[in-house]
Amino acid sequence: MGWYGYLGLWCAGFGGVALVGPWALSLVHHLPENVRDTRRRRDTLAAMTAVPGRVVAVLKSAGTDEDGNTLTTIVPVVAFTTHDGTAVTAACEWGIPDPARSYGRELTVHHAPHDPTDFTADIAGAHRAWRQGIVFDTLGFVVVAATAVVGAVAL
Fold it and tell me: Which pLDDT does position 5 carry in this prediction?
């Protein structure tokens, strides 16, 4: 291999460490915090209480983006009463299938006992979301750390 081959390896190694190293350090810093938040959310989901609810309204808003495309947002509004008698009416951003046609639909709402505004209409989807977050963070860390190691070895 000529000098240009060694120069290429050195540049690749330096690039791997210089570009990916800070990203790996950032992930090392943020991963424990994300794990703590995810565990806290998992515990909250496990403690959620199921109550009957109903979609009492469907909010629709329209706007345009910078390209002139029309964007429409549809958000159902859910009403439910907790076991201790607290009435809650709030927008349900996700978890209701076919939100445009959900007006009047009866559904089961799962809410946190200490905060009824922390609720979901799709408990299984909420569980999937926290699992996917941990998997994504861990895989990202492994890929970035491996790239940094390969770059350091190539130096």
Answer: 46
